[in-house]
Amino acid sequence: MTPRHEQAAALHDAHKRTLKGAASADKKAGGIRPGMSTWHIAVGQLVHRCAGELAEHRSEPRTVLAGHIIEWVNAAAKDTRVFGNLPKARAQISSMAGAYLFTYAPGPDAQYIGAELAFDGGRVDLAWFIPDLGVVIDELKTTAWVRLGVDNKMLEQSQRYREFGNDEWDDLFAGVRFLPLLNPHEARFIDVHGDVHRLSDSPARAIKENAA
Question: Residue 21: is its pLDDT beyond 70?
């Protein structure tokens, strides 16, 4: 099997993970972290889904993409409320999905692998194949507690994603981007060895430009 075929097979397997093992992953990922509530979880999941389902539109003009986001959120967010408020929930989801798609989503040459990908330790938020870099997992943080600064405790989930990425994609895997959407200056990149870098000082700093 050629490297090209191996790459295609690996990416295809990742797509299948979106549909398989969902119930198992939900149980293992269960439990609400301190400072979070059920609506935090629901908002985060909708942000991931919105970003994934609109990935094909990421290179469209900003105003057009914003329209897609608002339309998607109004259709998908029907029961999610922030402190009992549906419009507030929709505004948060739209704002954070837009922050990701405008700022972090790779350009048109990148291959979108999937969102909410199930694995034994939970679910990967989003994953991409970036030309000249490899497969990158994105962990999106949508809660305000990430404003406090990033420590090893906050990166435990990213490290689990890294372990999964190494097992799943082997030499194709590049690392994990930790992306606090409310505090972009605290963004990090965790490489395949588990070393943590500021995103701005990492090999993943120019993903958007490299993929364009």
Answer: no
